[in-house]
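testing teh design pipeline on a random one, pls ignore if ur not involved
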């Protein structure tokens, strides 16, 4: 009877060790997955910043009668390249 009890306790210890190892593995793979997601988000933001900065034109002063043309889409019209309206609404 004592031998069975000893085997049962040993089996419980081994099972607990395996469960702990699986839990640690799950936690490390989850944190690695979370880190991958953070890295991808950071890379996406970097690419978006680079793209938007490469689309910007130098802001030299306009000569009388010139109109500035936007190369980025307007948040109000979604027209890419639409000339911004001046103060009179032209």
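output:
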């Amino acid at each position: 009877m004592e031998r069975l009890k000893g085997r049962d306790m040993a089996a419980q210890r081994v099972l607990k060790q395996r469960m702990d190892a699986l839990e640690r593995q799950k936690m490390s793979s989850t944190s690695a997955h979370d880190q991958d997601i953070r890295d991808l988000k950071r890379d996406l933001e970097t690419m978006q910043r680079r793209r938007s900065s490469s689309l910007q034109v130098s802001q030299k002063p306009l000569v009388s009668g010139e109109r500035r043309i936007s190369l980025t889409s307007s948040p109000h019209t979604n027209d890419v390249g639409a000339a911004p309206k001046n103060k009179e609404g032209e």
